[in-house]
Amino acid sequence: MGLSVNATWLIAFLLAFVRAGAWMIAMPAFSDIKVIPPIAVACSAAGLAILAAPTIPASALPVDTPGLIGAILLQALTGAAMGFVVNLILQAFTAAGSVLDLAGGLNLPGAVDPLSTNQTPMVGQFYQQVALLLLFGTGGYLEIVAGFLHSFKLQSFDLGSLHLLAVVLTADLATLWTSALEMAGPVLLVLFTTQVALALLSRAAPQLNVWQLGMPLQIFLTLSLVAVAITVFPAYLTGAVSHAVNDVGALFGAH
């Protein structure tokens, strides 16, 4: 008894698997292989490929070996570009926390992330973890996955679309820093006001060692205000997810 294999579906599955794998590797929730085993990433990519393969028209599939190799490389580039765009938008939370680390004085002690074994800002790492928890807890990841699956129904991403990638990345960089400053701005304002008040107090009473208490006070205010600031994260995350999905569509010329 022979085993019949649908060659058309198999090629579509292979191309979708390559795009899904590259996309997941570039995503912030799956990019750290020390947290997510590679076999888990591969199985998740295979599941997405099974869903996406039927949506790929047979006319878009390569019919020869050179075409298949080129299509595989193009799908890898497409998935990596899509994942990088989403990752760039979600990095706004980490950037906001890093700014607060610098302004609040929490970057002075060396903090080593046990997962990446790299020195990392404490508040930036905390903001990133909270954003990822909210992403999965609120179902925002489902919207991102839906946007990824919808990309197979759009026009193909080719080398001529690289200018769209440049435009999207340029706009996303501006969005990243704008969102980061919006989230960190109120805390930065309070910390700056505190420093000005301490400076005026030191001039008014030079005999007081004001700056000896300045750093503990600044760190206390930073931690207290961070606890309040994370209450706005759900709203920012909803906007970030919608923005990321729209940018993924913009890579394929959809508006």
Would you report the number of β strands?
0
The overall pLDDT average reads 80
Q: State the major sheet.
A: none
Gyration radius from CA atoms, angstroms:
23 Å
Helix and strand succession?
A: HHHHHHHH
| Beta content | under 5%
Task: Please explain how this structure is put together.
- The chain has 255 residues and is an all-alpha fold.
- The chain has one domain.
- It is built from 8 helices and no strands.
- The termini are far apart.
Task: Name the features.
about 260 residues, mainly alpha, 8 helices, elongated
Q: How do the strands and helices of this protein lay out in sequence?
A:
Blueprint: H1 7-26, H2 38-52, H3 65-104, H4 122-137, H5 140-150, H6 162-204, H7 210-229, H8 233-251
Summarize the structure.
The protein has 255 residues and is mainly α. The chain has helices spanning 7-26, 38-52, 65-104, 122-137, 140-150, 162-204, 210-229, 233-251.
